[in-house]
Amino acid sequence: MEANRVYNFNPGPATLPLEVLKEAQAEFLNFRNSGMSILEISHRAKQYDEVHNQAKADIKELMGLGDDYDVLFIQGGASQQFCMIPLNFASKEHPGSYVLSGSFASKAYKEAQILGVGEVAASSKDVDFRHIPTQDELKINPKAAYLHLCYNNTIYGTEFHYVPDTKGVPLFADMSSDMLSRPVDFQKFDFIYAGVQKNLGPAGVVLVVAKKSLIGKSPENLSTMFRYDTFYNKNSLYNTPPAFCIYMVGKVAAWIKAQGGLSVMEERNRKKAKLVYDAIDNSNGFYKGHADKDSRSFMNVTFRLPSEDLEKKFVAEALENQLSGVKGHRSVGGMRASIYNAMPYEGCEALADFMEKFRKANA
Ligand SMILES: *Cc1c(COP(=O)(O)O)cnc(C)c1O
Prior knowledge:
It is a single chain. This protein has ten helices and 14 strands. By secondary structure, the protein is an alpha/beta fold. It has two domains: 24-259, Aspartate Aminotransferase, domain 2 (3-Layer(aba) Sandwich), CATH 3.40.640; 261-362, Aspartate Aminotransferase, domain 1 (Alpha-Beta Complex), CATH 3.90.1150. The strands form four sheets. A seven-stranded mixed sheet has the order 2-10-9-8-5-3-4, with helices on both faces. Strands 11-12-14 form a three-stranded antiparallel sheet, with helices on one face. Strands 1-13 form a two-stranded parallel sheet. Helix 2 (46-63) crosses helix 7 (243-259), helix 3 (77-89) crosses helix 4 (103-114) and helix 8 runs parallel beside helix 10 (345-362). The model has no long low-confidence stretch (mean pLDDT 97). Bound molecules: pyridoxal-5'-phosphate.
């Protein structure tokens, strides 16, 4: 580990690859011989144009998507997508159908409800969002405008391990916290979005990867900045984009490519997650995982300790061991270790070792 740095287990904004940070640092004052920083350069400059389009191309290449999809960069966070999706696609006749698998999934549904165009396809709220609804539990409405999933539930630590069969209903997914962490059959999705501050970059931009047929034409009566076709028709350059964020996302995408792509990410992420889950499973019940085993996330590992006092002590002692950001979300309590692409194997090893030592000292 780099001197003065910690293993950062925060859920988002989150850890970024050290190589990427160093690269950005090296070219910070003079970006591509412009004599300016990327923070100062015009979004109409040639140097920026290359960054913008290369990022788009690399993301599509990593996802294995062809010419029928486009990549958009939009501000307002994933939370604004919760609003824009029903505004653009849902109606009373063709409602948005939502799988409620956690907090963000429920927030997305709430925005459709405000407009009177949302319905529930399945929910695991009654079991404290410990599991991902199965295919059999999904109520597919053939008239729905879309079926909306939250693919990885950042707060509860659960993740989809299958792509639902929607029987032809367009499939929409919030992949904010597991985008580009493993190969997924992305072609089965019509619309994917991700706030990049979890797994792909700094806060400030959302990636939308969607079928051109969906984002090419928005309803007539919608304001300019809430229309997907505004972003699509102008290559996400209708107004000033968050250039620095997009530049960083581009660097992270190039880094993933250089590592060997999504299958290499998956292999690493599985090994990392196994270290932490094994520490839970081999603890004789000292650590209790929140998620059911078959719904466990590879990105966010949630667990509790025998008492809240021990949980406070765990957070404090973890930090003394350079393990930062392990406190869970207030709605679940306990611990959450976010182990995105950029978290090295050694970070998970250090956490698992610490968990074992802490258990032996406090069980
Ligand atoms: C963090 C998160 C959000 C909210 O993202 P903002 O960019 O803060 O609006 C939405 N969905 C998921 C899955 C998240 O992890």
